[in-house]
């Protein structure tokens, strides 16, 4: 799977945006499922091991073009304020219900195609091949992949104020928790593309030197609004002053590297008080 993960990373940074721009949501999703179809054909055909090894690239491409694009699409069509809930629903459907049903079917197929203690793998791999092929045909013939226009908040608002959801924006929408459990935050974008961060911060974040020493972080829930920008592999945020419970958090500027960003994991690369790079890992909680 290491080869698949490398292919996934490359596809995310260099192919995802191009595919969405050139193919649109529908055919990018079809590209993803088709990659799985080709991989399962290799499996079912009992291809030589080197061919099977190379075919793992198809899994990495499929994951990006289907799993990630699905989240991007849902983020694009979600009504304002519901993106995080929609992402949670996708997570429950894939990792919850989908994983359960897939495990049951795999167990049935393996038991059914077992002769003298040996699994008949070509026949077993036919099951996911047929299911994925059927899904690909449905996407190609039925799914439209259109993004409805969201109603303007005010009649006088110019059309240029409408938000365009980028792949990176859609990926970070949701609820995240730092690996050390010192920080929980919900990222979302309103209908004009403005970043909204609601979070619960503990004092350990400041103690680690990840934030300026003179910055006082409220130990209760705060809401922060600000301007954002994505440039290459960086997330640039300018947060407005936040006030809660009579305590003010001053306006701040962040220029963070994003060495890792996926549906389940996000890593900010900051610098501590001595200037040494520090990776701050976050995991999606819903």
Layout of strands and helices, then pairs:
Blueprint: H1 2-44, H2 49-54, H3 56-77, H4 83-112, E1 114-115, E2 118-119, H5 121-141, H6 167-172, E3 174-178, E4 183-189, E5 195-201, H7 204-207, E6 222-231, E7 234-239, E8 242-244, E9 247-249, E10 252-261, E11 265-271, E12 277-284
Antiparallel strand pairs: 1-2, 3-4, 3-12, 4-5, 5-6, 6-7, 7-10, 8-9, 10-11, 11-12
Helix pairs in contact: 1-3, 1-5, 3-4
What can you tell me about this protein's structure?
- By secondary structure, the chain is of the alpha+beta class.
- It has 2 domains: 2-141, Growth Hormone, Chain: A; 165-284, Lipocalin.
- Helix content is 46%, strand content 24%.
- It is built from 7 helices and 12 strands.
- Strands 3-4-5-6-7-10-11-12 form an 8-stranded antiparallel barrel. A two-stranded antiparallel ribbon has the order 1-2. The chain has a two-stranded antiparallel sheet with strand order 8-9.
- Strand 6 and strand 7 (234-239) form a beta hairpin.
- Helix 1 packs across helix 3 (56-77), helix 1 crosses helix 5 and helix 3 (56-77) runs antiparallel to helix 4 (83-112).
- The longest helix has 43 residues, at 2-44.
- The protein is globular and about 70 Å long.
- The chain starts with a helix and ends with a strand.
- Residues 152-163 and 201-224 have low confidence and may be disordered.
């Amino acid at each position: 799977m290491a080869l698949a993960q490398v292919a996934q990373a490359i596809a995310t940074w260099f192919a995802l945006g191009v595919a969405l721009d050139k193919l649109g949501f529908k055919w990018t999703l079809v590209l993803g499922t088709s990659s799985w179809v080709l991989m399962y054909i290799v499996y079912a055909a009992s291809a030589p091991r080197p061919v099977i090894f190379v075919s793992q690239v198809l899994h990495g491409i499929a994951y990006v073009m289907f799993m990630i694009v699905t989240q991007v699409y849902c983020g694009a069509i979600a009504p304002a304020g519901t993106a995080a809930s929609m992402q949670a629903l996708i997570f429950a459907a894939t990792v919850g219900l989908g994983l359960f049903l897939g495990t049951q079917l795999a167990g049935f197929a393996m038991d059914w195609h077992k002769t003298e203690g040996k699994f008949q793998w070509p026949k077993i791999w036919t099951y996911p091949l047929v299911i994925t092929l059927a899904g690909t045909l449905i996407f190609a013939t039925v799914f439209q992949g259109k993004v409805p226009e969201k109603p303007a908040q005010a009649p006088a608002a110019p059309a240029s104020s409408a938000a365009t959801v980028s792949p990176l924006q859609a990926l970070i929408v949701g609820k995240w928790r730092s690996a050390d459990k010192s920080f929980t935050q919900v990222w979302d974008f309103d209908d004009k593309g403005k970043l909204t961060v609601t979070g619960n911060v503990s004092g350990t974040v400041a103690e680690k030197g990840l934030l300026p020493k003179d910055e006082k972080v409220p130990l209760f829930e705060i809401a922060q609004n600000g301007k954002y920008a994505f440039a290459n592999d960086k997330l640039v945020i300018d947060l407005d002053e936040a006030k809660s419970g009579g305590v003010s958090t001053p306006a701040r500027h962040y220029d963070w590297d994003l060495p890792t960003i996926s549906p389940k994991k996000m890593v900010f690369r900051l610098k501590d008080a001595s200037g040494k790079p520090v990776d701050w890992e976050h995991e999606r909680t819903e």
